[in-house]
Task: inverse folding
């Protein structure tokens, strides 16, 4: 089978460069190209030089439509509006769309679902193996413990992250809710301020911290009278997300259209 030609959206950003490096280092994958916004200084730059892996003979472009015609898959850690646009292009091109973008609205989610009729979409708030194991463990623990154990999810990221709670925190919240057989929408508590009264039994709480250059820390706390269980994952290298995204693209090559998760990719 020929190498999978993978394009990178937002190729000049920190995550974009990590993705290019991961593709370049992966057997069976090749960098097909990358995009940046019109007017960006990186337009026309060799994508390999931008990522620090040396010249690859492929320039960064501001034309995703042209790029999608020569790619088998795209890796997308951009913004919700941009991701929805790319999803439509991926659907038209019938290629794999790996989405690490977070912060989607209900409207965005509906558009992605429509695109998945023709595109193979792998979508996850976090692409790392460790986090996805944490998600699976969170669901199992929530299934095993009743509502006498309060569930709190604490996350911390760098000071430039624009959405909260993080996509990973929401993944963990959804896992806990599935374990409890409840709706996260109904049981989620995103903020506490002032005189809030006692904690409601069965709620799933979120706490958000921002500071410095933290890549991503997540802890799920199960707290009851007299004991507490804490499940924690700490990321210190963005490369774990990039390698997971490339793995997802390779996995998706043989899959029919639809929306898949990293749990599907990892067989969890």
Result:
């Amino acid at each position: 089978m020929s190498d999978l030609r993978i394009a990178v959206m937002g190729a000049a950003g920190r995550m974009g460069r990590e993705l290019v490096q991961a593709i370049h280092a992966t057997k069976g994958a090749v960098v097909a190209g990358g995009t940046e916004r019109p007017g960006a200084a990186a337009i026309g730059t060799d994508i390999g030089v931008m990522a620090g892996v040396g010249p690859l003979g492929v320039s960064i472009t501001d034309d995703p439509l042209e790029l999608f015609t020569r790619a088998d898959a795209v890796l997308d850690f951009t913004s919700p509006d941009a991701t929805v646009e790319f999803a439509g292009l991926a659907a038209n091109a019938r290629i794999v769309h790996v989405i690490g973008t977070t912060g989607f609205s209900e409207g965005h989610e509906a558009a992605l679902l429509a695109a998945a009729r023709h595109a193979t979409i792998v979508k996850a708030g976090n692409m790392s193996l460790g986090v996805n194991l944490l998600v699976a463990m969170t669901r199992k623990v929530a299934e095993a413990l009743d509502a006498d154990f309060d569930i709190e999810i604490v996350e911390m990221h760098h000071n430039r992250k624009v959405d909260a709670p993080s996509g990973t925190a929401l993944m963990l919240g959804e896992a806990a809710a599935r374990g409890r057989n409840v709706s996260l929408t109904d049981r989620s508590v995103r903020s506490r301020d002032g005189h809030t009264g006692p904690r409601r039994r069965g709620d799933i709480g979120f706490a958000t911290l921002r500071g410095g250059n933290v890549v991503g820390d997540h802890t799920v706390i199960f707290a009851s009278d007299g004991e507490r269980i804490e499940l924690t994952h700490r990321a210190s290298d963005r490369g774990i997300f990039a390698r997971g995204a490339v793995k997802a693209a390779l996995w998706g090559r043989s899959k029919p259209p639809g929306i898949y998760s990293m749990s599907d990719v990892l067989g969890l």
